[in-house]
Amino acid sequence: MPRPEREGDRRTGSVVLGRAGADEAAVAAAEERLGQRLPPSYRQFLSVSDGWYVDQMAGVYRLGGVADIDWFGDPYGMTPMYERDLGADPSPEETLLAGMWRRALRLETDSDMTYALLDPGDRDEDGEWALYVYKGWSGEFPDRYPSFRAYMEAMYRHFHATRAERADFVNSTTREQDARVERARLLALRGRHEEAVPLLEEASGFGRPHSAVLLNQIRHFLAPHRSRGYGGLVAEPGCLPEVLPVEAMERARDGRRPDGDDHWLGMMAARGVARETAEAVLGALRDGSHRYAPRGAWGRAVAEARESARWGAGDAAWRVLREALPRWEQPGPGLIVPLGLLADPVLGPLVTPERGREVLATPRAGQRGPVPVPAPDLDPPGLGWLAEPAAHRASLGGGYRGVWVEGVDPARLPGLIGEEGAVLSSPLRPFDVSRLAVGVHGREDVEPWEDRAVVSVGRSGSWAFAFDGYGHSRFGPRFRSPAAAASAGGRAVVVWCDRGPGDPEGPPVAFHLSVAEGGTELYAFTVRGTETERSGAIPEALDPDRLFAPGADGVGGERRVLDALYGELGLALPRFALTRGRLPAFTTRSWTRAPREGERFAHLSFTRTRR
Questions:
Q1: Are strands 15-18 and 10-12 parallel, antiparallel or unpaired?
Q2: Using alpha carbons only, how large is the chain's radius of gyration in Å?
Q3: Cα(339)–Cα(241) distance, rounded to whole angstroms?
Q4: C-alpha triplet 206, 207, 209: angle, nearest 5°
Q5: What's the confidence (pLDDT) of residue 18?
Q6: Could you give the CA distance from residue 553 to residue 352 in angstroms, rounded to a whole number?
Q7: H/E run at residue 248
Q8: Which of 287, 302, 312, 544 is the most buried (most CB within 10 A)?
Q9: How many CB atoms within 10 Å of residue 210?
Q10: Using one digit for the tens of pLDDT, what is the confidence trace for 543-598?
Q11: ∠ at Cα 64 (61, 66), nearest 5°?
Q12: Contact 355, 303 (CB under 8 A)
């Protein structure tokens, strides 16, 4: 609120902010009364303005002058409470805060239960005292500023930020900060995001329009899997297809609570998005059908990259995007990155922090600059990574099994080895595939003896693959290889590595390989410990006696046979797609045959309950 004008007041608009400065004698008298020389920036402040009215939104309404300041004295007994929470090994910062209450100098004379406290025990090499702002009504720790100057600068930024929406609030500071925003926008488009960030951070502190939105776009690509807010950008012409799906991602992950959807839909409506549009995008994200589809050369590259990535070729997809990125065009002036890429269920997971930095460092939208060093590929060649420690198999279990069919489209695999009526799902995360796999055996149409696998589907080189990496099933005597059925489409290979239920890091308790062609099994072997069963003419390169024999190279038999399968047959799997990306899935026919007459089997099921 405007305050009455008085002689010597310093004013901004109609709001009284300060008053005439105190002379050196008055400051020195206050220091003698307090028994302490005041810190430099506070002394300088008093000489310019002996007290100050602070913006009311800050909680402190007025800072007193030399005649008003006095020691706080901890009238509310904060010290014992903070000392109790110090613990056995407190940090220096915690110790300083606990002692601050009794030694602090209180500056405010009018506030909303908020205290501005200068601490002479928390000082730097320049003699500045830290200033703590404690909101007594909040129950939170005080906010710390390294000096009185830092506090006043923060209040200055706050003063501007709370008036940023006013069209008539223009001064040299707002003009300077707006110029910084525009310079940062151009720097970001030229691939110089590291120079743009501090400009936008400063402008954002002043609440300048577009600064936070531009900064969030950069930060989103530096940490692609952390959600960011984009405010009214969604309503700007051309930006909705890019921004709305990104805004909906977190809501889509949070489940289907109608009340939560209503709240989010209401927020979008307040930003100018029609409810039916927001509902359609949210639904598409949830069922995996959303597609990022920009225009122009960039849009054509996105479509080509998705076709590669949808079957697991993430590195090839990224190379397509990398080449086309300079031709990305801004759908609206407020966008400085292809934001919608992050929401695509197939392409979004490919944007790792390293690749996000590559995007930011690439000149685009007609701007020029040096091209960054490409981010390295993510998928190792072959199958050997399956035998590496669990860190390289994140999201997978210990054991694994898979079917490879040569020369067929991956979409044909459900017809070759799928259960009746099997179709490919939308792209699924590894967690979702694992959850489906557990649920298969609770279905009424699945016999207790059956072992149906939920497999992720893709392509690697000339091979289509169906892969189950969760180790939920055990390799048993009634195993029936799907190789013969799969080979109706071309040469087929089946691999099963069973590590047993006890040690997902240990050596396999059983390892099986079978190869078939034209509906007939050509050769197979199964290794259990020191016992090997074999059939057919096994090529020398895949001879289990050689591959699983103890050797001085320190490499186990599992790793040797996986490397041999890559060298002999060209089998490989995309680690990134299987552990961190999304692939379609389907349920196979049983990998075990029905019990024959006179055979016995046992089926155990476990139910976890809460006590």
A1: antiparallel
A2: 33
A3: 10
A4: 125
A5: 73
A6: 35
A7: helix 240-253
A8: 312
A9: 21
A10: 999 999 886 565 689 999 999 999 999 999 999 999 999 999 999 999 999 888 77
A11: 170
A12: no
